[in-house]
Amino acid sequence: MANINKFGLLSLLMVLINFIFFIFTRGPNANITLAISVFITVSVLGIIFALMSKKRIVTITGIFLNGCVLLFAILLLLAVGIGSS
Q: Whole-model pTM?
């Protein structure tokens, strides 16, 4: 754990926060627009933290994992847009 700097750790923590938020907000009465905005905001912060990290492996891992969450949020936003029309 000593090889990961604080920005790399924050980047990976953003992925964990997204996962925990997803577990707590799923269900039929979930506010999808709130979930999408939280996913996008937290994953963009995670990507920024990953870019500020000094270690390459943490940078690549953080960008990949937060990018996957961002892609999930964009696809969810697309599905909400298609479903409402």
A: 0.86
